[in-house]
Amino acid sequence: MVDVREVAPGVWHARAKHVAWVLLVEGGEVTLVDTGYPGDRDRVVASLEQVGRAPADVAAVVLTHAHPDHLGSAEYFRTQVGAPVLVHEREVPNATGERVEQVSVATLLARVWRPDVAVWMRDIVGLKAARAERLGAVDTFTSDPLDVPGRPVPAPTPGHTSGHSAFHLPEQGALLAGDALMTGHALVRTPGPQLLPSFFNHDDDRALDSLGMLAPLAADVVVPGHGPAFTGAPADAVAAAVAARVG
Ligand SMILES: [Zn+2]
Q1: How far is the CA of 161 from the centre of ligand 1 (A)?
Q2: Which residue range forms the structural domain that includes residue 165?
Q3: What is the pTM of this model?
Q4: Number of domains in the chain
Q5: How far is the CA of 202 from the centre of ligand 1 (A)?
């Protein structure tokens, strides 16, 4: 099941159980911002159908970062549909698998005594998290805004990974936060804007610093990679996330 809703004009937030992606619809074409877990493939296709489009209409895939829950179907769209896959230049090694930055299995197993971690791990194994297909070729951001449907403006926000990037949509009044900021996760009890649990962040202090990149951006809605959209300005979401971290 996937919940798809239009959070700003032409900006569709698609939420599966554990992760979200975004469809930027412009005319007959779509930019996919992130692509779910490998096991979310049918849900990605279903989300395209829900906005009246098909896989062949995907003109580009843009990744906030290359964790398995975001790059799940990127290689599929590149090889089967011919869509270029764009990442920040510092995310290239993560996208191709040359040097992967992600939480280790050992770190997760150290926490598996927690019932929520055990259930979540069982779910993500089912979503083929460990079998994410890395990219055979990637393109990097070379224009600002990107020359793809929706015209997203990269907002580099290192920390969660070295090459993580959020995307500002100034005309649509939206900020796509990726994993720079989230509002809900199976391993977190309190909803609302916050950083991911620190063990998911490659550099947790840097992730906190990067929130400062997002606060000044003008938008009416903040769309995270995990959890529901936050209605309000990025500055308010950032303030809540900083407070949650300090608290
Ligand atoms: Zn991530």
Answers
A1: 7
A2: 3-246
A3: 0.96
A4: 1
A5: 9
